Amino acid sequence: MADWSIELADLTKRYGNFTAVDHLNLTIGKGEVFGLLGPNGAGKSTTILMLLGLTEPSSGSAHVCGINSTSHPIEVKRKVGYLPEDVGFYDDRTGFENLMYTARLNSIADKEARQRAEKLLMRVGLTDEKGKKTAAYSRGMRQRLGLADVLIKNPEVIILDEPTSGIDPTGVKEFLDLIVTLSKEEGITVLFSSHHLHQVQQVCDRVGLFVNGRLIAEGDVRTLAGKLFTGSPYLVEAGIAGSNISPEWVSALVMPMKGIESVHSGNNHWEIACSYDATADIARRIVESGASLTYLRRKEYGLDDIYYRYFEGGNDHE
Amino acid sequence: MDSMTFTIATLKEAMTMNSIFKYFHQDRHPLSKDAASHPFWVIVKKEISDHAHSWRFIFLIAIIALTCFSSVYTAIANIEKIAGAEDSEDAFFFLKLFTISDGTMPSYLVLISFLGPLLGISLGFDAINSEQNRGTLSRILSQPIHRDSILNAKFIGSLTVIGTLLFALGFVVIGIGLIVIGIPPTAEEFLRIVSFLLLGIIYVAFWLNLSILFSVRFRQPATSALSGISVWLFFILFYPMIINLIAKMIEPSATASLQQITNYNKLITGLMGVLPNDLFSVASTTLLRPSVRSLGALSTEQLYGAIAGPLPLSQSIMLVWAQVTGLIAATVICFILSYTAFMRKEIRSR
């Protein structure tokens, strides 16, 4: 129990007839970066609200650092920093003043709060803008200020709800790097909710796929791929040049190898599906046959594929 | 001479207000230098400083201060005429500053009962919904504070601002009176003025709570402001009109018995008496005019043998206790409604 930062047991939330979160079971370890991935309206935000004790679950329970979120929300909120989607600040105050306000709400003594705010503003790269009113901040700056705001209470867990929406790609990269560094340095557990696949893939140790209020798959990206693409988790792409190259020829060449499951061709580009990582063997085979190998690439299934498998062509999973 | 006095008074008032707001805007509480203050008072302080810095509030102060000064000015200009006439009220000469007018400008009392609602509505109509629209509400709620702290702090903060403003204005009027008339108020007069100011705060608190209720209920600040103003207009314009209509319809004939006429009068005053502004004006008139002996009709028997004379303060307060309780009850009801609505609300970002 001490090793778990977040524990959700049979967590359910219903709005009338609509079930937003359906018997969710999930545990997240200390210091882990967990990505909650799902389309809009999957129930991610509702889950987060229940974690913070901002809304009551219909049944089931949520524990953060061993504290029940529903019955002891204040203690939970002392340990959890929450960055809502599209965070807002008091526009007529400066970034620094906004941070100080949050610090005071957390009963941090002024002197310490001041030091912490300065340090965090430097950390998120807003030192030059700290005296500006937040009305003048760009979207990316607000989001970074939001991260500082979350961190000022020295949280054990931070929850980021779609933190990157609306930031430009460079900003996103910086922001994500910041999160990873912080998590590793301070040992903070991070729950990162998003519908952006690449971002989740970039930063998260573990990913949960969340659809229609249910967690349909969970694990690191590789395990997830393995679970979803049973049979042929590896795909090798090859370019073969030569005078007598035909689909039949390539099939005849590779199919006798063990573990090779199918060969698809298209315009001198071949896709070979196999049950183990056969890249090296395929390379040797082609080179030995005398044909010229122009390129060879092992394709790993990314979240994109997982995602599309589920959400686009995934009606059969219903 | 007069204009000099006014300039000095205005300057004084500006200075008091400034120092008061400076006090609230201080980064630290003077009593607790190092220890962090309770989150609730952090929010209260922020609310007060927000109000003090907002243009809306500055304009409101300007309007209210200007109208109050002009009403006091007319009162002072006319006080000599009235002072000449000897009557039993002469002992309470000072209170007339708040109540008399020559018809061109309404009296201070009437102005407060008219502008008070505006003050309350304008300080409360965007209390909750603007925070939600700015996306700050969900951020604040995720801090370790109780949810009701926010609502309570908003109420206390605005009430402090209102109280400060009303007391400052009231005392400035006393000050002007002192300078111009030269007669200091007696202790009882002073207490009467203070209780009138307290009553004014309760009255404005009612409107404040009503508008906070609308701000919890309606997502758009414009909607909640308009709702507040329409309730105000309804109470001030339409409700009396409707009562008048009813009164005309059920008016007893000239041959009706005394009993019927008394009942009729009771009904009409009862119907009017549910209005917060009516409660306020009846109660404050009684407090500021010690000669008011009863709020209902008196029969000849009751008046027989009575010696016309002012009531002591305690008796005046007894007389208006029902009105005061009514106002407080209305305030509490609004607060409870907004409280329950806010506690049940699910706060999502934006």
Describe the structure.
The complex is a heterodimer of chains A (318) and B (350). By secondary structure, chain A is of the alpha/beta class. Chain A has eleven helices and 14 strands. Chain A has helices spanning 44-51, 73-79, 95-105, 110-123, 139-151, 169-186, 197-203, 221-228, 247-254, 279-289, 303-311; strands at 4-15, 18-29, 33-37, 59-64, 67-68, 80-83, 157-161, 189-194, 206-211, 214-219, 234-241, 260-266, 269-274, 292-299. In chain A, the strands form three sheets. Chain A has a six-stranded mixed β-sheet with strand order 6-7-8-3-9-10, sandwiched between helices. A four-stranded antiparallel β-sheet of chain A has the order 2-1-4-5, covered by helices on one side. In chain A, helix 3 packs across helix 4 (110-123) and helix 4 crosses helix 5 (139-151). With 350 residues, chain B is an all-alpha fold. Chain B has one domain. Chain B is globular and about 70 Å long. The relative contact order of chain B is 0.12. The chains are: A alpha/beta (318), B mainly alpha (350). Chains A and B meet through helix 2, strand 6, helix 3 and helix 4 of A and helix 2 and helix 7 of B.
